Amino acid sequence: MSLSLQRQIGTTSSFRIPQVLTEARVGGRCGEILGLPFFVPFYFNSLLSFWFDQGFLLLWNIKPYNPDMKFFIDTANLKEIQEAYELGVLDGVTTNPSLMAKEGITGKDNIMRHYKAICDIVDGDVSAEVVSVDLAGMIREGEELVEIDDKIVVKIPMTKEGVKALKYFSGKGIRTNCTLIFSAGQALLAAKAGATYVSPFVGRLDDISTDGIALIEQILTIYRNYGFETQVLAASIRHTMHVIQCAEVGADVMTGPLSVMEALLKHPLTDSGLEKFLADYAKGNS
């Protein structure tokens, strides 16, 4: 989650002392400021400057340390979800009507049972999407979905009625994931309405020659400016570089197919190195 805090101490003047500290990234462990060791559970990624008159102004843009980036799998396939879970890195699942249809899951009762089967596999959040486009329908579906399991997060489209639904569910303490985000303005509206997650579609933006990663970074900056607790869930992840780039800019969550997670395992030098180690061992122990 991203928070922003400005602290003012004393008064300001136009006289500015040269920068004494530019950045300290400590990742919740140990760091060093002006040669002195310290331990804090944050990292401070801002400019620390001093103005002197009758006092001084201290600005800290503080972001709490996130222990890790969450990995969600974007599928309704139970076998793939189980494989990702057994890998030991799965934090949740995202689904949508297209993914359910791909697995041949049709009919309300079958869909609800399938969501429950997914929840029984994983420990984390499971996004289940409404199919209504009107406010009353979204509310009705969302309230039915959260009865399936405590892990369910109601997935709401970024529409005018969807924003109203986000506000309603936020007021009821029901977690939401606002999907089909393609602009910073949409993400801002979703956060204002109390969305738990927003899902900007990185790959689909790339498909139309727009920088999807730049949007992730822009949304994160806006959220940190104002202390929004909405988490940025990078969706439509197509390949490993999307994952790495999302991690670099600080996305809270990425959701992608099992193939992308498994591709992170691979490197030709790892394969050749292991092959050589095993060959050398065999020579000396045959």
Structural overview:
The structure is a single chain. Strands 7-8-9-10-11-12-13-14 form an 8-stranded parallel barrel, surrounded by 7 helices. Strands 1-5 form a two-stranded antiparallel ribbon. The protein has a two-stranded antiparallel sheet with strand order 2-3. The longest helix is centred in the last third of the chain and has 17 residues, at 268-284. The chain has 286 residues and is an alpha/beta fold. It folds into 2 domains: 16-64, no CATH class; 70-263, Alpha-Beta Barrel (TIM Barrel), CATH 3.20.20.70. It is 41% helix and 21% strand. It contains 11 helices and 14 strands. Mean pLDDT is 84; it is low at 1-33 and 38-63.
Number of strands: 14
Query: What's the alpha carbon Rg, rounded to whole Å?
Result: 23 Å
Reading side by side through the largest sheet, how are the strands ordered?
7-8-9-10-11-12-13-14
The chain-level mean pLDDT equals 84
Q: Tell me, what's the shape?
A: globular
Order of helical and strand elements: EEEEEEEHEHHEHEHEHEHHEHEHH
CATH superfamily of the largest domain: Aldolase class I
CATH class bucket of the largest domain: Alpha Beta
Number of helices: 11
Total discrete domains: 2
Structural class: alpha/beta
- Indicate the CATH topology of the largest domain: TIM Barrel
**Poorly predicted tracts of residues:** 1-33, 38-63
As a percent range, the share of helical residues equals 40-55%
Largest sheet: 8 strands, parallel, barrel
Alpha-carbon distance between the two ends: 54 Å
